[in-house]
Design a protein that fits this description.
alpha/beta, Rossmann fold, Aspartate Aminotransferase, domain 2, Aspartate Aminotransferase, domain 1, 3 domains, three-stranded antiparallel beta sheet, 26 helices, 39% helix
């Protein structure tokens, strides 16, 4: 696949694949659809079918195409996607024009419009943005299947994040509970599901299908959000559902058309049929709504679509692959049995909707590089707390806590686990539970977090000597280092090593999530190497509080005593467990840690390209700038953070920690700061 990016234009994509363009149908009048058609005019001779409600609106598009390439054959087909009868007529017309179709691009949409229903009795956005495309595509499947190598491209949007398809009520109680942006999100999630359904049905060599997000582009699509009140309502809804409102940088129409054209023309991505593309390349993960809807059944027709139930039944199959693909779980672990859905009533949602709660301000962490523990909990976590069980955690009577403990134990392949209040408590509990009769020592990396930044708790509380080992390779402890530094013999002069405490990544055991996200191993694979593991739910995965300790049943029983001794016995622990589960499922398993790591790597690459030096190579989400070796003094760096609206911490000089809420804009400002201090 050629190297495309946010800035790639549609013409650049077409020029890269000019000899592959053949017969195509799909662009609607104006906006991105028109730009896609105009870009395609730069390819060889082929046929474009321009579909729209009125021919007058595509005359200018036709004129531009003719000016670029007079050999392109053009046909106009009238279609109103909100009217199923019109869609059926259009399908017959297209079939009469051409027997075989190489590419279908389902792009046309309306957005956040006032409540209305179509002639078929369906909410307008759902009918136009999804059902119209769904029906047209199914009616033309015979034309595409016969081709071999055909493509179906479905336009979706990041506005669908946090959305869902209300299978039993796509009409929002006939408008009574209608929220414009929620209806738009519903239609875009449906398009994601439709893409996955098609990918599950067809050999990609016959039909490959992709979901694409063109980006944030100024077109008449946003006309209904120009009213300040409407825009505010949309922002509040997105913030409530996802925990933040990210303002994407605007693209030009040409840049906006590029992702669709990559999906339509690049033969190297056929094997990834069903995936999601953004910024002219395959995105690292599916949007999180694919995970949330993974277990929904798509095997039955919607009750509001009696006029084409045959097509629905034919096209809709169980479709979604878990967003956790790539993160191996134990073979005998049935993820579906332990997942819990957290739902609010409409009345509760309405109260939250109208409130300016701190939970809606997760974007406040978008510029915070102090630590990945500075993420802000999100609205889905609040929703989980509100609906959590409230049993006594100290006496093992809380359902949400029991479910989480079983879930994590299964993920790492251990017999049991124990929820604790914090990572510091988790470390102390884990060590104390492993130490029996003194004297005893804990062997650890000399840079270890637990003996540098936890007030000497292991020595003070457990009475353990901390033996600090220096890695011979300067990076990480090896078996040879451990053998060299351990005291395994019984001697009246020496303190025997009873615990070997290893930390990842970059000397903080709480960030094991990051090592897994980087592809070093799976949770189950690392679990086989250790008697006990401590995992933090705040660092990285972004829960408001909580950590968990895993091990065998006997070890966890002793850990309960240690937790009690440290004052960690808690009552309604469901309010800790429920948001922690959301963090694991929607941040870790949704691939968001890897996205943060990619930003960290980008930042370190920029730093080095400007002549800066690193103390440690950037392997996960932490960048270690060697300010001294780079010729940069403390006062040349840290005071400038405020000038660029960035938050740094000097507890460890040169350390910058990335997390999933760091924004692209903050990354840009950070790189600007790098340029300022190094130039």
């Amino acid at each position: 696949m050629p190297q495309f990016s946010f800035l790639t234009t549609g013409v650049e994509v077409v020029n890269a694949f000019a000899d592959q363009v053949q017969n195509k149908t799909g662009p609607s009048e104006g906006g991105i659809g028109a730009e896609i058609a105009i870009s395609l005019a730069h390819a060889n001779q082929f046929l474009i079918i321009l579909a729209g409600r009125t021919e007058d609106k595509v005359k200018l598009v036709v004129q531009k195409i003719r000016e670029i390439n007079a050999s392109v054959r053009l046909n106009f087909v009238r279609i109103d996607l909100s009217d199923q009868a019109s869609v059926r007529r259009a399908a017959k017309t297209v079939s009469a024009i051409v027997e075989k179709i190489d590419i279908i691009i389902n792009n046309a949409a309306i957005m956040a419009c006032p409540w209305s229903k179509t002639n078929d009795g369906i909410e307008s956005q759902f009918a136009t943005n999804y059902l119209g495309h769904f029906l047209l595509t199914n009616l033309l499947l015979e034309n595409t299947v016969s081709v071999g190598g055909a493509r179906i491209i479905n336009t979706t949007s990041t506005a669908g994040a946090g959305g869902e398809v209300y299978f039993e009520d796509v009409n929002f109680k006939d408008g009574k509970t209608y929220v414009p942006v929620a209806a738009y999100a519903q239609s875009k999630v449906a398009m994601l599901l439709f893409t996955a359904a098609l990918a599950s049905r067809f050999d990609p060599q016959k039909i490959a299908t992709f979901s694409v997000h063109p980006g944030n582009i100024r077109t008449n699509l946003q006309v209904n959000l120009q009213d300040p009140a409407a825009f505010k309502s949309a922002v509040e809804w997105v913030t409530m559902k996802t925990g933040h409102f990210a303002r994407e940088e605007f693209k030009t129409l040409q840049q906006g058309s590029s992702t669709t054209l990559v999906a339509a023309l690049d033969n190297t991505i056929i094997g990834s049929s069903g995936c999601y593309l953004a910024d002219a390349q395959i995105a690292s993960t599916q949007p999180e709504e694919s995970e949330e809807l993974a277990d929904r059944s798509l095997s039955r027709p919607f009750s509001v679509m009696p006029t084409h139930s045959d097509e629905v039944a034919k096209a809709q199959q169980p479709v979604i692959t878990k967003a956790s693909a790539g993160f191996a779980s134990p073979k005998d672990f049935d993820e579906g049995k332990t997942e819990r859905e957290h739902k609010l009533t409409d009345a509760q949602r309405e109260v939250i909707f109208s409130s300016n709660l701190a939970w809606s301000h997760s974007n406040e962490a978008s510029n915070d590089f102090r630590s990945d523990s500075y993420t802000k909990p999100t609205f889905p976590m609040l929703e989980a707390i509100i609906t959590a069980s409230l049993g006594d955690g100290d006496t093992d009577e809380d359902a949400a806590t029991d479910s989480l403990q079983e879930y994590i134990a299964n993920l790492v392949g251990h017999e049991a686990s124990l929820l604790v209040a914090s990572g510091t408590m988790g470390n102390q509990v884990a060590h104390q539970a492993a130490l029996r009769m003194p004297p005893y020592a804990i062997l650890a990396d000399y840079r270890g977090h637990f003996h540098h930044f936890e007030c000497g708790g292991a020595a003070y509380i457990s009475g353990a000597q901390i033996r600090q080992a220096v890695p011979a390779n300067g990076h990480h402890l090896t078996v040879e280092d451990v053998k060299r530094e351990s005291v395994l013999r019984e001697s009246i002069y020496e303190v025997p090593t009873r615990v070997i405490s290893l930390e990842n990544t970059l000397n903080d055991g709480a960030r094991l999530w990051e090592a897994v996200a980087a592809g070093a191993f799976t949770l189950h694979e690392i679990g086989e190497c250790f008697d006990s593991i401590q995992l933090c739910f705040t660092k990285g995965v972004g829960a408001p509080l909580g950590s968990i300790v895993t091990g065998n049943k006997a070890y966890i029983e002793r850990a309960k005593w240690c937790r009690k001794f440290l004052g960690g016995a808690m009552r309604a622990t469901g309010i800790i467990a429920a948001p922690a589960r959301i963090g694991v499922d929607r941040v870790f398993f949704a691939g968001k840690l890897k996205e943060a790591q990619d930003k960290a790597k980008h930042a370190s690459d920029i730093w080095e390209s400007l002549g800066g030096k690193l103390s440690i190579p950037t392997e996960t989400n932490i960048v270690w700038l060697d300010l001294e070796a780079s010729g940069v003094g403390y006062d040349d760096f840290y005071p400038l953070a405020d000038n660029h609206d960035l938050k740094f911490r000097d507890l460890q000089i040169g350390r910058l920690v990335f997390h999933y809420q760091i924004s692209d804009e903050a990354l840009r400002r950070l790189c600007d700061l790098f340029r300022e201090v190094l130039n």
